Amino acid sequence: MTTNRLSKAVSFMIVAVMLAACGRIARQELREDRAGHLYQAAMADYTAGRIDAAIKGFEKVVRATPGNASARFQLATLLQDRRQDYLAALCQYKEYLMQSPASDKAELAKERAEVCERQYAALLLEKLKEGEGPVAAEISRLKSSLDKALADNAKLREDLADALRETAATKRESERVRRLVTSLGDEESVERPDLSSARELLDEEDDEASDRVALADDVSKLVAEEKEERRETPFAVAAKKKKTSQDEAEKKAEEPPHEKRPAEYVVQEGDTLYKIAMRFYGRRSAWTKIRDANKTVISIDGRVNAGETIKLPE
Question: Would you identify the CATH topology of the domain 12-129?
């Protein structure tokens, strides 16, 4: 037991001597740091109240001798207390603690560094509130982008609403024309094609405007003929019917001979039932006969596709 106590005492004394030696070395280094003429000049400016000159002097000392801890500590305190440059002061305190972690001012440097961090954070927050700094600039840019995106979205909504209104107006016009055509004539004498697909049966060169004009002309012609028939005498009506029969006979005579009309036909690119009827029958109204003879191939609206084989009835 006595030996163990003696060993512990010796170890304690060795540690104490080492600490004392370190302290003497540190104090010696501090005295050397403060002995330089640049340091002395900076301290003279500080004592005389020439703060800007003192800061410049300590900065010269740090650049000349980066390991001068005393100059770093003095520079840090001046930057913090007089310049309010908390970020630069914080950097100097951190460098001081790395160079002299066991000095007598290490704890004070830690406390001051923490104060600098809080002060710098408060300064950044204040600048952010006032709209300054890179963060505020980025927030402003994002806000501008958001406003532009909202404006574009509103414009797209307006365009969509206009398109929906135009579509609704087109549907109403098509329905009105369909009812008008349906009301003319009786079901036995007037063909009533499906108007929803009538445009697809017309030539590709016909547009919507020309279709409406042609339809309006046909309607006007039918109404005028109906009024004229009501005014004509029975003899005039009979003569007109005879003339009509003769015209139909002439049209039939002008039709291609039966042997020149093939029994089947392969639909080509750009063909419609109207074109096929005019080519092989001499009149467009024959498209319904072709459709009825090919119910398994042609849909009710009369659309045909290139490559399909259809029958041409007599």
Answer: 1.25.40
